[in-house]
What does this fold into?
Amino acid sequence: MKASWEKIEKNRIKLTVEVDAEQVAVALDKAFKKVAAKVAVPGFRKGKVPRAIFEAKFGVESLYQDALDIILPEAYVQAIEENDITPVDRPEVDVQQFAKGQALQFTAVVTVKPEVQLGEYKGIEVEEKSNEVTEEDIAAELQRLQQRHAELIVVEDSAAENGDTVVIDFDGYVDDVAFEGGKAEKYSLELGSGSFIPGFEEQLVGLKAGEEKDVNVTFPEDYHAEELKGKAAVFKVKLHDIKRKNLPELDDEFAKDVSEFDTLDEFKQDIEKRLKDRKTKANQSEIESAVVEKAAEAAEVEIPDAMVLTEVDQMYNDFANRLQMQGMDLKMYFQFTGQTEEIVKEQMKTDAAKRVRNNLVLEAIGKAENIEATEEELTQELEKMATQYSRTLDEIRTILSANGSLDSLKSELTVKKTVDFLVQHSKQGASVA
It folds into this structure.
């Protein structure tokens, strides 16, 4: 087989391939065996018709498409491997010559991974934030825990306040006509949570148990239900109960109830340590993001649309999986939000392009600095996974090898090492609180 290529425009090449007649003959033989097994010819059992009789009756041309389906993919893969080409999209194939006794000649226009012209990536200046934990931080964490462990107590002879949970019936109307989804009974709503249409919750403040009220609101212009966008509505509301949070005292008993510590002071010390660890990790993540962003901005690379669309598809699938883990599917999400697959994917394009750019630049830096994950580092990562999933190291390695994920894992480790390299060679400014 002969294969050569020429650049036709940025990130697109034209691959010219010639496969010798002997390989064409082999492909035609395979095609004949495949087709003959399905063809009925009088006087012969299926699969037993001689080749000459088959060709005389149907013509050798009847085998061409099946033979091409056999030989083209193999020839294309061999051609890109021999020429060290990295496609990022399906090729546009044009067959110039294919016939019995002749060589196969075809061209393939291929969109390839773009070249990256690196800018300055060492000595990137980043701001290092303080991981100091203040008394205010500890107090805020305690208040969050206090709210989480609060009891809801039904209050009598008291008007509803922000923060209360009210139990209500409501029935909504637009132009005096009830609309779908506008009615519920014994619905629990926390006032001030922003769960309902703007203006709804505020009008229930001051209402007492047993009272009724007409709540007038206007649906937002971007409301998910097309028929309700910008429409004025009236909700007939009846308030049944008012439940108010009874906050526990922040004392030693509280510490015992919500933690493993006997005193509030010990619990505060633990909170301070955990908050400091959290800030340290968050600061490190911000620094990593900053050096990658700045290295990517300094580089020159023209990203093919195909790479962005592939990344969008990956992001969309990840989004669908996250919804599923939350007990929701895409159909339900679209019903709630009024969005569509096209809208969601369009919204993802900017982030997808940034991801592709960052990955290409990190890959280029890794090559420039000869950064690569070692077998020892790969094994360490596999050991972590084995512990996490209660499997043996060999089992994890076998599973990842079988589904083709082992090389991807090694690439991820290489990217992480490259990010670590950028951080190590950055200039971190004075810490700020």
Summary: Residues 264-428 form a domain with the Trigger factor, domain 2 fold (CATH 1.10.3120.10). The radius of gyration is 33 Å.
